[in-house]
Each structure stands twice: as structure tokens, then as C-alpha cells.
Automatic annotation (TrEMBL):
Name assigned to this protein: Tn7 transposase TnsA N-terminal domain-containing protein
Domain of life, per lineage: Bacteria
Organism this protein belongs to: Candidatus Gemmiger avistercoris
Pfam family, one: Tn7_TnsA-like_N
Every TnsA endonuclease N-terminal domain range: 13-77
InterPro entries per UniProt: TnsA_N
Length: 82
């Protein structure tokens, strides 16, 4: 079984989703949890203020979900702190 790091390294950095080519983006969730049953959960913790300041965050997060989380069956959880 491949590790989270191996899967992310093997996938190239440019996305080609729905025939659109996107600029290279870098995104890593705050941490990964691997449960005993093999389920992987990617967790992101953000404050509401920081999330508003990072305009491209939603785009980078969506690319991560579409390119890594969904194809590998990972859960993605985002906690927004007020």
C-alpha cells in the first residue's frame, strides 16, 4: 500500500480538469490521519479571517480534493475557526 506522500509525489503538479489547464499550485493539508481500517482523512484547520485573505485557497483546496482525495478514496475535512 502506498503512503500519502508517495501518492502525492507521483502525481504531477499541473491539473488538467475538464479540458482546462491550470497554473501549478502547491497545497498540503495540515495533517493526515490514517485509521486502523486503512481509511485516510486529510484535515485542514483555518481561521475565518485567514481563509478570506487567501483568495486562491479555495482553488488550491478544490484541486487537492479532485486530484488526490477523491481518486484515492480519502476523506477531506475542513475546520473553520471563527
Amino acid at each position: 500500500m502506498k503512503t500519502v506522500q508517495q501518492i502525492m509525489q507521483e502525481t504531477n503538479a499541473q491539473a488538467n480538469i475538464q479540458n482546462f489547464r491550470y497554473m501549478q499550485q502547491h497545497y498540503t493539508p495540515d495533517f493526515f490521519i490514517t485509521y486502523q481500517n486503512g481509511t485516510v482523512e486529510a484535515v485542514e484547520v483555518k481561521s475565518a479571517a485567514v481563509r478570506k485573505l487567501q483568495r486562491d485557497y479555495i482553488y488550491r483546496r478544490r484541486l487537492f480534493i479532485e486530484r488526490f482525495a477523491r481518486p484515492n478514496g480519502w476523506r477531506f475535512t475542513e475546520y473553520i475557526q471563527e
